[in-house]
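fyi for ur records
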Amino acid sequence: MATREVISTGNELAAMAAVDAGCMFFGGYPLTPSSEVMHVISDLLPKKGGVAIQMEDEIAGICAVIGAAMVGQRALTATSGPGMSLKAEQLGLAQMTEVPLVCVNVMRGGPSTGLPTRVSQGDILQAKNPSHGDYKSITLCAGSLAECYTEVVRAFNLADRFMQPVIVLLDETIGHMHGKADIPTAEDVEAGIVPRKRFDGPAEEYFPYGVGHDEPAVLNPMYEGYRYHFTGLHHDKNGYPTEEIETCRKLIQRLEDKVALHEDEVESYEEFMMDDAEVMIIAYGSVSLAAKESIRHLRKEGIKAGLFRPITIWPSPAVKIKEHTDKIEKVLVVELNIGQYHSEIQRAAARLDIDGLFKVNGRPISPHEIVSKVKEL
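which gave:
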């Protein structure tokens, strides 16, 4: 794949990626530290014939995005932690109705107003279950400037493949980082777009939710002659509300299985110097950059450390995590929270003796702190 070199910030690259991936609608509300996503895309979209709209609040922003997606458009919203809390109900609606959209969350300190201008990774567990109920979330996490672009592109393709919201996590550090990134050309991104499935048969034979047990709904764009019903209630193959026992059971199981049985299409991770590692560091987002620097330093001192970086956070790459943790005794999870992914690593590894290095004061974790912690193991 051909690449191009750009100098930009993570937030700006996320906006560029959305437009290059075919996004034609943005709905949102400015919120630190994500506001630049909206600022940039509001300049880019009109030039492509798209629409960017600032709504009165975060709830209205995602409501507008759901509406745009219902008529067949790729649509984006962007926010930070408090905005994710406000969007939670509508993210649940999109899960139930199987409306695809992408939500970029540039993480900051919380809960509540927290530390608006400081870095955090405190929304990891929220991204797993942003709304009540049973479903399988898809959440990606950028670990470099280039991935602020490529993961947003991937998110749109995954949203249309699985017909549901896909969350892309940035953190304040990587969102505001300014530097060089090698990203795919717009032409290559466009060539890689896989449109969502649609039904082309007679209208009377169209049952959007009447699909296989591990398949997503097939939602033709509204106003094109195919009639169906959107509802947050449990529904039948037409989308009409129902309380029929078996129909309800199959619906919720399918929302789980359409992702759970196809995790190989979603899973993504990076291994850095893991071939001979005797110490395994697990980090994601901007923290992984500090982890890589610490590993270079540790290697010079004769300590064979390596990094495992989940790019797909949910569903987690649990099989690969266990493969490594079965062989490596010393494992350290480094996070800008109080251990939200640490518990997932323990679950995947089937081990409780997983060490952690956590920080929750809005400041980044330095390579020196990681080096010192590894030497204590």
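The chain has a mean pLDDT of 97. thats all i got for now
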